[in-house]
Every structure is written in C-alpha cells, then in structure tokens.
Amino acid sequence: MKQFSSASGHPHNEATDGDEIDLGNLLQTLWRGKLWIALCGFLALCLGGFYGYGIAVPVYTAKSAVALESRQEQVMDIESVVTGLGGDQSTINTEVEVLRSRELIETLVLDLDLLNDPEFNSALQPNPRFSIGVIVGAVRGIFGAQEPSFLVSERTTLDRTINAVLDALSVSNLRQSFVFEITATTQDPAKSALIANRLAELYIENQISVKFEKTEAATAWLSERVSGLQVELESAQAELKNFSTNTDLINADALAALNRQVKDLRDRRLTLAAQAEATATQLERLRNAAEAGDPNVFAEVAQDTLLDQALSRLKEGREGGREAFSSRREALIAQAELEAARARSQLTAIEASIADVTSRIDNQSEELVTLEQLQREVEASRLLYEAFLSRLKETSIQQGIQQADSRLLSRAVVPPAPSAPRKSRILALSLILGLMIGAAAVLLREMAQNTFRTPEDLEAKTGYTVIGQIPNISVKARRSVLEYLTQKPNSAAAEAVRNLRTSILLANLDTPPKVIMSTSSVPGEGKTTQSIALAQNFAGLGAKVLLIEGDIRRRVLSEYFSHDHPNGFLSVMSGDVSLNDAIVHDEALNADILYGEKSRVNAADLFSSRTFGEFINELRNHYDHIIIDSPPVLAVPDARVLGQLADAIIYSVKWDSATHRQVLDGLRSLESVNLKPSGLILSQIDRSKLKRYGYGDSYGAYAGYYTN
Length: 708
Known about the structure:
Blueprint: H1 23-32, H2 34-55, E1 60-68, H3 89-99, H4 102-111, H5 132-142, H6 154-168, E2 169-173, E3 179-186, H7 189-245, H8 252-292, H9 295-302, H10 305-316, H11 321-398, E4 406-410, H12 423-448, H13 455-462, E5 466-471, H14 480-487, H15 492-506, E6 515-520, H16 527-540, E7 545-549, H17 569-574, H18 579-582, E8 584-586, E9 591-594, H19 603-607, H20 610-620, E10 625-629, H21 638-642, E11 648-654, H22 660-671, E12 679-685, H23 687-692
C-alpha cells in the first residue's frame, strides 16, 4: 500500500518534545486571537479610565522625617537610668514598629480629634443612595422584617478609627541611615501634612515621657531601697557594738602571742617528758641492780663517788663498810624516786598549761571570727548604702534633664498635587492587564481546544501528511452535492477535490492506486461525500471508475442519488445476478455505482472472505479506479478488513469536530492490522468560523480562482 510522505517521519508524535514550548506556534496562536486580545485590552482600558476619572477619590501624600540620635549629649558624667538607642538593625526595626504601634496612633487620634473625621470614622460617613445595605433594608421593609440594631461601643469605634489611620500611614527606614520616613495619605493635603508632623512629634514626646516615667520609677525604688539599707546598716552596727562590749578585748596580735606561748610550752613539754623518762629509767635500773645484790653492778649503774668509796671499804673488809654501802644505796634509790616524781609533776603541770592556753586560743578564735564577720557585714552594708544613696542622688538629678533619642529632621509640607490616582499609570496598567487577560484567554482556549482546525495541527498530532482540505459544501440535501460539484466546477470545494485527486495520482506515477478506500474515525465526517466527489473527478479524466458502497450496515449512498438499485454486490457474489445487472451507471457522476445490500452474514466476515477478495480482483480488470466507501474505523471492524484489499487509504477528519482521541484511536486501530493511511483529509471546513477563530481563510488569497 502506498503511503504518502509523513509529516514528521513517525506517526503519533504528539508526545515528542512535549515538554518544549514552540515559540512560533505560541505567537501564531496569539496572532490568531489578536481581535480577542485587543477587545480585552480595550475593555480593560475603558474600565481603568472609568475608575481613574470617575470613581477614584484623589488622595494627597505628605512625608516627615525623624532621625535617630545614636550619640547623646552628655550634660553630666552620670550614667542614665534609660540608656540611649543603639544603631543595629533590630533597634531600627523596633522603632519602626513603635511608630506604628496602636498606643501611639491612639494618642494621635485623640490629639487630632480624628474620631470626628468621617474619613477615618466610617460611622460618620453618609450612606450611599445605592448600596447593598440599602437594598437589603428595603427588602426587609417590604416583607415586614425589622432591621437588627447593633450598638457599637466607644472602644470599638476608636479601634476602627485607629485601623483606618494605620491604613493611611506608612513608616519606613531609609536604607543605610538612621532616618525614619513617616508617610500620611488622606483626602485632604493639609490633613496629610498635619498627621505626618504630629505623629513625629508624638513619637519624640513619647521617648521623653518613657524616660521620665522610668527615671521616676527608678527614683522611687531607690528611695525605698536606701531607707531599707540604712536600717540594715544601723542594725549591723548595733550588733557589732554589743558584741564588742560583751567580749574581752581581742585582736589578731593577742591571738598570735597565745599561739607562740603554746609553742613554747609544747617545746618545754618535750624536754620535761624526756627528763621524766630518763629519771624513770635510771630508777628502774637502780632498783634492778639493788635486787640483783651485786654491789659492783649497782655501783656501775649508780655512778656515785660516795657509793664508790663505801664499795672500796666493803671490799677491803673494813668495819662499817657494808652498812655505809647499804645506806648510800638506799639514799641513791630514794633520790632517784624523788627526781622521777618531780619530773612527772612538772610534765603534768606543763600539759595543764598547754590545755588551758589552747582552750583560750579556741575561744578567742571563734570570737575573733564572729567579730570580723560582723565588721565585714557592717562594711558591706555601709558600701551598699552609700552606692544606692549616690545613685539616688544621680537619678534625682536626671529627672530634669531627659533627652529624646530622636529629633524631627524634616517637617511635612502640604502637598500641592494629589499622589493618587495616577491616571496615566492606571490606564497603562489596565491596558497591560487587559492584554494579558486576553492573551491568557486565547491560550487557554487553544489549550482546551481538542479538535483539529489546521492541517499543521493535524500533521503534528498524527504524524501523517494531510493531502486534502475540503471545505463544507453548502447544500440542503445530500442529493444536491453532486449537482453542486457539477454546476460549480470552479468552486473551492471542487478545486479541493481536484487537489486531492492530484495528490493521490502523483503519489506513484508509474502504478497509481486502483483500489482506494475512504474511511474516518466516526460517522458524519464527510467520507461518503469525498468518495463521490473523488469518483467524479477520476471519471472527469476519462478513467473508468467504480464506486462501491462498503458501509452495508447504514447504506447511505442511495441518499445521494435518485435511481433504483434492486441488486447490490452481495447478489453478484452469490451468483444471483450478473455484475452488469447489479452495476448502476450515473450520468451526472459519469461513473458506475455498486450498492450494498442487507446480509445475514456479518459484514466483517463477508469482507474477509476469499470470495470477496476474488471479487475485488476481478473488478480490478474492468476499472481504472475502484473507490470503496467503508464504515468508520471506530464503529465496526469492516474498514480494517477492507483496507487489506486497498492500494490506498484516505482518512477523513472532520474540521473542528473530530477529537484528538478519536482520530488517534482510529489510526491506531488501522495500524494494529499493519495498515497505514496514505494521507489524511481535513473535511467540512467552515470558512466563516475559520475567520472567526483567527486562522484566516486558506482560500481567501485565491478567491479569484473560485466560483461558488
């Protein structure tokens, strides 16, 4: 089967490059909708002009400037209770919010009596003659319903007025500066300047007031605290005096002397302890030697001269020597016992002295610690009292020299001209907005459009070449179609059919298609009309043409002709009649017609039979062109069967009617049985709608060639 050159190289390329935006196509779409875009722009321009010149109320804008003082004048070297403002961004943002605070705006409202200004107090504004509220009230009155009464409190009125003033004000910080710009916009130029200036003044006064209040509060607190600290100091001093009176005179030097005395006593105790131990040891040795009974041993231990003399007399055996030795021995033992007792007595006495002095040290240490603690408390209370007293005096002085952290840098002047509405800007923006809305509407309409209006769109969506564009033939009845084409051979429709015929013949000059099947996606797309017109055109070239009614289910071909046709090709296939008896020759068409007939056999089964294939092959021997008007592809499977016998398939797509899904599904249905249309026909084009949609008239440029 011959397929004409594809528009894109591959069918159904609607997903190819789907994410890319075709700028040219977009501009073409906008150009086609230029009238709608221009209309939207004109309407928006009219609305903008009506608003700017008829509805909008002129307003005036005045601006004052306040500078934040990052450096304060230091009259006295006294630290302020409230420190000055810093220059960081957070401080600047805070001050902007202070300028817009409801408390400050409330002061402004009360100061300028804005509660009695109808511009800010909506309750004072006169009711319009025509409004929703008036209409609702009138309807309620007709039906006897009472209007509910609402009592608005003074606080509510004040809050609403504050909100209105806030809407009329704006505060901003000039970039890279400590300057705040206060902008007031009202319907009165003098009022705008007054509000901007007064808000700046109230802001500065508020800074001084806040500082004064905080300083006053600090003074009161310091006075109360100084009184309390004075009482605490006097109490501490009295306690120290009472403790000093009831305690022996002590000091650190006396305590150090006692510590030195204890050290000396302990040193003496060590000496006495050694002496006591030595005397006790000597006494023990003397007693042991005496018990041994050896005079020599005792004499050696005693080391006494008199004892040595008595020992010599004893050894010489002189008279009285033993008694003298014994007497001296007892005397030495008694003397040793006395010395040992005296040493123990001295050691006991020195230990008692140490214990007494140590006790005195402990007692005096505790009393000294208590005394020093009381002295420190008195000193601390005195220092704290003096510090608070000094700060109280400084704070009292500051109450009279408070300075604001800002100054009025620039006063607002009465604006000479309104700041809004800016009529030229309103008109320009209205026009731009209208054009944008119009363009958006055109694009949305184009996106929502699910049918085919141009051959380019059809080729882009399907990937098949559009070989014909057939305009709508304006006739009242189907039987008038052939008459129209015959009587108006130079009409746009006739020329379009000739172009279609030429495209089919030039597809292959050597072997032009003999069997041509005409089909579509759904009924009503003009395939039968095109089959008749194409048959007439082929016959006009002198070719022998046969038109077969392949849609045997509906059989609408008879509605185009007035002659009788008792037999059809089914009768020929069954052998009931001959081919010549079944064929009807139409003089106006100048071609033969083979009508369809009712059959008990399913049409698809009939067309797929070998008998029907042989029948078509037989017809090839008798005719130059055989045109089969087949059923729609999506309705029944007949077209997919008939297409197997055709040399060319032309696929009709009704202009602005067949949906993308229908056409693509129909083409896929043919491709599922390895059939590809030779070309597509955009049929029943409505030229008047084509202009209205902004696509232009494909035939307008060549209207001189057409005679409708």
